[in-house]
Amino acid sequence: MNLEPYHWLNSWARRAFYWYLRRFPLRDGKEFFYQHCHQRLAPPQGGVTLRLARGFTLHLDLADPVQRRLFFFGDYDERREADLISRVLDKGEVFWDVGANLGYFTLLAATRLKNTGQVVAFEPGPSAYACLTGNLSRNPFANILAFPVAASDQEGDALLYSMAGLPDGRANLFQPGAGQTESTPVRTVTLDGWREQQKLAEPDFIKMDVEGAELAALTGARETLTAGDPLLLVEMKEAIFQSLGTERAAIEDFLSPLGYRPAGLFRGRWQVRRTVREVSSRNVLWLKPESSRHRQKAARVPVGGL
Q1: Contact between 265 and 283 (Cβ < 8 Å)
Q2: For the ranges 36-45, 54-63, 186-195, which has the lowest average pLDDT?
Q3: What are the backbone dihedrals phi and psi of residue 236, each rounded to the nearest 5 degrees, phi first?
Q4: Fewest C-beta in 10 Å: which of 45, 95, 243, 256?
Q5: What is the pLDDT of residue 118?
Q6: Which of 101, 170, 163 is nearest to 131 (CA)?
Q7: Quick one: how many helices (H) and strands (E) in the chain?
Q8: Is the model's pLDDT at 3 over the cut of 50?
Q9: Proportion of the chain in helix, strand, coil states, percent, rounded to 5
Q10: 3-class DSSP assignment, residue 261
Q11: How far is Cα 170 from Cα 167, in angstroms, rounded to an integer?
Q12: Which letter does DSSP use for residue 303 in this model?
């Protein structure tokens, strides 16, 4: 049997599928085709290196659902958040990626800063940290520091629960979830203490995704938040807070006395809200309306309601 036509058709279908998911302007229907076709049209090799349109390179393990989607769509689902970071960062500024995973936002910030300023990545998971440092080595940036530590409200040690062998974006310090069979001892630090110990510059922007440890991490960064007035982009999944017996308002209770107000995505646009209970998006932008620097940066996005 001559398999050459089959291989040619499969290759053509794969290229057409990639183009449709990555470049076709209308998003309606893409999820349907992805769910029904991605297994048949995935590359035969398990790992691929991809140059993203945002200007940096990632090596992706297609066994990981998150990385697989990133490969097929050519970008994260959090494209609005990526656009925000690209618009507000200025050359020479400092970006902290707390919960960096494989390094998407770390490299996004480095691309924007163009080897000026500094990018600091925090990632405690051993598999994720190995992916992170590997991806950093694939890009020509000399202004990135990476640390295998977990941000918390105290120095010490903790167990990190994760899926075995993958840079698990759901890895957490509290309880194992579905498929999280690996528990790894990790070092916990406060961001204030680590900044002083490592002689780090004050951040201008902090992106935080630490799967339920957000309040602890922010508490350990009180001096940093007060001294430097950084913008904050914090992932705040309601389901995780509920599983821990708390709610998103606890973070608002901490940040509000420091002058921060929440803004969330609504119909693709960022909008300041009176309270975090009015924010439906999982990622919340925290900014200080009284800060002229914050207002100027928010106008670039733009952020409504200021």
Answers
A1: yes
A2: 36-45
A3: -135, 80
A4: 45
A5: 98
A6: 101
A7: 12, 14
A8: no
A9: 40, 20, 40
A10: strand
A11: 9
A12: E
